[in-house]
Amino acid sequence: METDVLVVGAGPVGLALACALRQHGVSVRVIDKAEGPATTSRANFVHARGSEVLDRLDALGDLPEESVRAMTITSYAGDRPMMKIRFGDPGLGTAAAPMVISQARVEARLRERLAGLGRQPEWDKRLTALGQDTAGVTAVLADGSTVRAGWLVGCDGSASAVRRLAGIRFPGVKVSERFLLVDGRLDPELDRSGTSGWTHPDGVLGAMPMPGDQWRLLAYDATFRDDKPGEEQIAERMRRILPERTGLTGLGLHDVTWASLFSVHRRLADTYRDGRILLAGDAAHVHAPFGGQGMLTGLGDAENLAWKLALVVQGLAAERLLDTYQAERRPLATQVLRGSTAATKVNIAGSPLGRFLRDQVLMRVFNQAWIQRWTTYTTSQLWVSYRRGPLGGRGRKPRPGDRIGDLACERPDGSRTRLHAELRGKWAVLGDQAAFEAARQRLGDQVVSLRAAGHTSGLAMLVRPDAHLACKGGPAELARWLDGALG
Q: What contacts 100, CB < 8 A, 6 or more positions away?
């Protein structure tokens, strides 16, 4: 076997998965059909949970300092402000703030982390065929070479070659006509403290500040019918509609660095696993960009899968543990697809009634402080729990499957630390030595012993590497859970 895991796709999901697997001591190769790293921004918002995942991968680095702290969305009708949503800390114990940052920078930071873990992506490696047996997977590349791996994970986006070659269905529907997407400079500058959006009978237009004096412009344009426009054609179209929809006649677009267009589709893979082949990120689910849920959901997929796949590879868990990956993550993707589809339909409402409901009713509702707190809470994905899944449970909060916040903790030697900083390829036991020893008998050196500040219940807590509660209780309860979950 050349490698334990072959990851196809060197975007944020594939890189995050590779980093997490290396943290767990698993050998990995990452291949991508592109000739080199992407330089365009594509996704440009990382919610708090995404920042947490990067932190647990030790890949957050200085991204928060690079990012733009633009945490408001102001909607206008012409020059009249209609609604202002403020994003903030939803009070769920995270030390990792949301960020407006280019996906290209997130990927660059993940590549740096992966290099520190002894691996680098292999570019210009296009997958052309797959075969699997009971011992592993054989991947055939365009140059005729093959890679033999124990497991293969497709993180290669919505047009996934892995999904196609594995014969996994990807049903869905088209939700909207085209959106224009342009990154460039605006003159004169708009308010960089937040995103601005304009409602217009021809379609919505939004402007989000980006690092480096750049702006991300997004406009719905159902009448743009050019089948294969170049970047300059898209940029010129945006220049024309920009003053029309904002009412700012002197607003100009310059120094365009990227332009694209897309239609919104909603798709969900029938299964996330076919034997030794698995899917993650956009290869498993695609949806509208509204709410910034795409990269966020993919990063969550990668972290959830990594610790489970590592245990299976290392012979510490039965293969059936991998079935919990789909059981925990696919329901979340279903929920995200519904929410993003609803947001898309609201934003592209074309009928007089639809525009009235959006502009006069919903905007007034979203001006309410409690609605804005709910919006922050929902989009952050810090609320995600697996308590209803096969590894979840009932009882007093926190319940098995619930996320555990970034608690202040102490190591056995009395030194101070944070819970999430210790979950870098590790499990954690918050409790006494006996509970720790019970977990270590099954997990070996993959578990650390901590004491949480203010934790006085007397029940030990076993926390998974993705910061979700595995179980709580005494040594016998921890051992019983591990035996049942890992097989």
A: 44, 45, 67, 68, 69, 70, 208, 209, 210, 211
